[in-house]
């Protein structure tokens, strides 16, 4: 790969040398000054076609995101980004059966490992990391994980699906942040282990179909302490243990079990909190249907600033929003539209283009919103 190192360690890479999953180290701006793609965006075939269409010569990439074993973007990738191919239901796309098979196996393996560890077994970090990494390996473009997860059917054992989902979200979050291999592995593994305390939670509470009573909720909250105790004597990084203990803490002190604030909460725990909430909100519950990612972004924007670490939250929300750039969505008036521009000050309300070539800035049209994804 031909590239040039910039002063701050980033790589200047030719458009023709770009590969899936490379992460931008700078905003990509066109000749008119419009931000096409924001810093921390992970490249996929859809946003790559936007770079091609704008006749850009190069972009700046985080070195840690470069994997030379992944082939460069090809004409087939550009074809796959077409409107026709995007509208093919996810479950009918060639990658989905492979992804689902690996996902199902990984959920079963996660359950086995968590119960074994909770009974005194040793934690094999390499094996735990491989569980998640093998799922990600089934995707040509890692950012497709959001689309694919939205098409995984509800489980009879949601605890273990949730653990896998949070681990996948942590993995892609670490890639956005440009984490090195060790930090990425620790963060990813923390996602699988964060709810291990639930293996000690009474099954009638854990599997209850409905909202908890106040007493049940107090019992459920103890899973954070139980998880920490299970891992306390294990020879693993302390931040992984503290992730299990602190993933329900909030930086304003309103969380549990310790009610601690800001700098006392570990970085892994702060990221786990965001990924944990996102997965819970985008999953079906007895008392509500799963929410569209743009609805979740809006709720994050309007309700949880002050509770979550702003640095991590902004990276998470921005990167998710940009992962849907060029995707087709369903508006609240039942019209299909393409996401063509992300409003940096209102990530949940992008500019969209309808099938009639009408451009709508959702940040200005308050009566309209994105209600669902298509495909």
Task: Report a brief summary of the structure.
The protein is α+β, with helices and mostly antiparallel strands and about 375 residues long. It contains 15 helices and 10 strands.
- CATH superfamily descriptor of the largest domain: Hypothetical protein af1432
Report the principal-axis shape.
Answer: globular
- Radius of gyration from the CA trace? 21 Å
Largest sheet: 5 strands, antiparallel
Give the averaged pLDDT, no decimals.
93
CATH class of the largest domain: Mainly Alpha
Work out the helix count: 15
- As residue ranges, the low-confidence spans are none
What structural class is derived from the secondary structure elements? alpha+beta
CATH 2nd-level architecture of the largest domain:
Orthogonal Bundle
Number of strands: 10
Major sheet: order of its strands?
9-8-7-6-10
Quickly count the domains: 3
CATH topology of the largest domain, by name, is: Hypothetical protein af1432
**What is the beta-strand fraction?**
5-15%
Helix content, binned percent: 40-55%
Instruction: For the record, give the distance between the C-alpha atoms at the N and C termini, rounded to a whole number.
Output: 34 Å
What sequence of helices (H) and strands (E) makes up the elements?
Answer: EEEEHEHHHHHHHHHHHHHHEEEEE
3D structure, described in words:
By secondary structure, the chain is an alpha+beta fold. The two termini are 34 Å apart. It has 3 domains: 3-81, no CATH class; 90-290, Orthogonal Bundle (Hypothetical protein af1432), CATH 1.10.3210; 328-373. It is globular and about 55 Å long. Helix content is 43%, strand content 10%.
